[in-house]
Design brief:
Radius of gyration: 23 Å
Number of strands: 12
Strand content: 15-25%
Low-confidence stretches: 23-35
Helix content: 40-55%
Structural class: alpha/beta
């Protein structure tokens, strides 16, 4: 899973990126401090995996990971080349989903490129540039399809009609992800890697002193704006997350309890991201390795096995499965689980569930 961190300059993108990945990207109080994209990987927090590691004391511990891409700040007119323009937009095309950071704090010492904080205006500035970029992409492809449909081939006729419809919707300010398209039409738009077709989470970056508050006016306005798009908002303080990442686990937990936020922003972000992209994790455990594997919800056992190795899918026989919660109830002992008949034998049609602890049997 690759998440692109986007937003206006000076909204806290790089600070949040560093907190999530500990990658050490440069942060400064001036626009375009980030020019080239920064890449970082964060481990997915998973208490289930921690429990299994305590049981097996494995040689290797491998959590699921998320790749974050800190992309240069976008400004008004970027689709026409302002700021870093098309260079920025090309990086956006390469990610699976967007983490759109919106400034929801006042600070006279941190320059705002628009002069003052306004979460809805700032979010719309970015969104309009993504729409304008998509309109240009669609127009170019539509011109080509309209020429080719003169050949009489049905696929070009369908493509031209689809793109005409999509362009009309974009001109009304509708994002591709929110358009009512058939599966055939969606296949055409997917092939264009349109920016507004990507799922998005808004990260409302709040001040440290606002952490734990139930009602923050700037966040409230952003929530209403995102709700109109069917998008989710994650309230997070990049500065607090930066402080958290410098602590050990015990200190981190004490700080989280003191703040009254329940869990870190990274944990909440991962959960929202997984849900947004329809992802789940299944687990494998043993003395050699305890590991989490990320798959799409709805994946059947042979295809899930293929995530480990193609031979596992090719020679799939069966999957031996127990739900993590059941395994935990009996203390994590797989032998006891088998004696009690709690380990299920599942075949090729079984759909893997989140938290399944799995052993694949195969033969090639």
């Amino acid at each position: 899973m690759k998440l692109g961190v986007i937003g206006l300059p000076n909204v806290g993108k790089s600070t949040l990126f560093n907190a999530l990945t500990q990658a050490g990207a440069q942060c400064a109080n001036y626009p375009f401090c980030t020019i080239e994209p920064n890449f970082g990987v964060a481990s997915v927090p998973d208490s289930r995996l921690d429990f299994l590691a305590e049981i097996y004391h494995p040689e290797k511990f491998t959590p699921a990971t998320v790749e974050f891409v800190d992309i240069a700040g976008l400004v008004r007119g970027a689709s026409k080349g302002e700021g870093l323009g098309n260079k920025f937009l090309s990086h956006v095309r390469e990610v699976d989903a967007l983490l759109h950071v919106v400034r929801c704090f006042e600070n006279d010492n941190i320059t705002h490129v628009e002069g003052a904080m306004d979460p809805v205006r700032d979010a719309e500035t970015i969104n309009y540039e993504l729409i304008f970029a998509d309109m240009e992409t669609v127009e170019k492809r539509m011109t080509r399809a309209q020429k080719m449909k003169k050949t009489g081939e049905a696929r070009y006729v369908t493509e031209a009609q689809t793109l005409e419809h999509v362009l009309a919707q974009l001109e009304k300010g509708v994002f591709v992800r929110g358009m009512d398209l058939t599966s055939a039409q969606r296949e055409i738009t997917d092939g264009l890697f349109l920016l507004t077709g990507k799922p998005v989470i808004y990260a409302a970056n709040i001040a440290e002193e606002d952490v734990g508050k139930e009602d923050i006016p700037a966040v409230r306005t952003l929530l209403a704006h995102a709700g109109q798009q069917g998008a989710e908002v994650l309230t997070i303080s990049a500065k607090v997350e930066e402080e958290l990442c410098a602590l050990n686990e015990e200190e981190k937990q004490l700080f989280i309890e003191e703040l009254g936020i329940g869990e870190s922003g990274l944990s909440r972000l991962i959960k929202k991201s997984y849900s947004l992209l329809g992802l789940i994790s299944y687990l494998t455990a043993g003395p050699k390795e305890v590991r989490a594997w990320t798959i799409k919800a709805g994946t059947k056992a042979p295809q899930a096995a293929g995530k480990i190795h193609t031979d596992f899918e090719r020679g799939f026989i069966r999957a031996e499965i127990i739900a993590f919660d059941i395994l935990k109830e009996i203390g994590g002992d797989m032998n006891i689980a088998k004696e009690k008949g709690l380990v299920r034998q599942e075949g090729k049609d079984y759909v893997i569930r989140d938290g399944d602890v799995v052993l694949f049997r195969f033969n090639v």
